Task: structure prediction
Amino acid sequence: MRTEISFSPLAQIQTELLAVFATDTQTAKGPDAKPQPVLLTSDEKVRSAAAAVLSTGEYKAGANETILLHSPTGLSAKRLLIVGLGKKAKATVHAVRNAAGTAVRYTKPRAIRELTIALPENVADSGVSLAAETSARAVAEGSFLGNFDADTYRTERKDISVQSLTVAIPAGADQNALKTAFNEGVIVGESQNFTRTLVNEPGNKLTPTVLGQRAAEMAKEVGLKSEIYSTDKLHELKMGAFWSVSQGSAEPPALIVLKYEPEGVKDGPVLGLVGKGITFDTGGISIKPADNMEKMKYDMAGGAAMLGAMRAIALLKPKVRVIGIVCAAENMPDGKAQKPGDVQTAMSGKTIEIINTDAEGRLVLADGITYAKSLGATHLIDAATLTGACVVALAMINGGAFSNDDATFDKFQTALSTSGEKFWRMPLADEYYDLIRSDIGDIKNTGGRWGGAITAAEFLHAFAEDTPWIHLDIAGLAWIEENKPFIAKGPSGVGVRSILEWVRSYAS
Result:
């Protein structure tokens, strides 16, 4: 999608469709109270063109609610689209991101290839206060996310994407600052879509080897160092936990290592980003039910999130060193597959009793975490579609977040205020670790039915040890089950924005 910025008055912009945001400023209560939509623009001609429809009360400016006006009076635009941000108290920068995505998704099926979005203004009668720079970034992010669809393999697929996006900046704004913020949003949106593209690939198209190739191509494109290893390296490093998952598949594993080393940064923290890259998960010998197993192509969404984050990091160039590691494998049930009751020795030397072969993600992450530490990582974050138990606890609304260090997690919590993604911190405690102590080895790979997301996190904690560490369980967020006004059904790319902002918080 081509992008540009316009500083012309809205009424003078010639475009197929001009989108402006509105909020409901109603303060009156009661059954007879009418919504009071206010356009977030000071352009009087735009306000005049929309005045009649806004006065009827039929348009409420609810979150992502739309209304289209053809041939709006006094405007050069052929169409005027009004997109709601909701009640003024909820008209945040995250609502702007979603509303921009809604504008794009409204435009796509109508064969409109050119779209202009007006950056929201803090007009006096709206009661809304939005920072222009964060709004500019959010508009770019939301627009790119809204332009993505997961119909790659349809033989009669028609490209209905928006080809050209213009963001209209109000007069008097800091043009350079807004250009920088908007371009940053483009990078983040494209990087999240890169993750979504990977997650959307079928297991027969995106094997561990192909995932490694795609990672290396991306790394070369954006200037990251990359090393892609396979079976021999796993044996050399004694990654028994990682290898145990891959040994049942005809497809070899891939250990993907990306390094970002900014110029002039020789000391300070080294951040380790570790992702689960199970390109297809049958469950192994502890095989999953057939229903919905086709979705297990997205069991590499944590690894894909790390690749998307590394892409954005390389392009935005924060002054902090970062190592990205993705442990990619298939979990298959052939005659060489590991069995319940087997004992594996991890890279760290810990022995693991295998209780359930479908608890494989924590096995590859265990060795990935240990390897990141061996490469010098001083702070760790991992992401994985790890447990159904996390979805039971938090539904498909929040991801689970765990940490062994409050200061490290505080930085992540602050990152969420920028990313807009939803994670809920869950507990760690010795009592939970006791549930995964093994009678014949050091640790079991499951702790039973209760507290499954927590015992999985405690398993990873045993390998992170005292290194400051965050674990993100994104099982409930990695795949969107139905279309939303601002984003398509399918892969979400969750985690990219939050991980990026966490990394940037360490930049000198």
Observations:
- The first helix runs from residue 44 to 55.
- The chain has 14 helices and 20 strands.
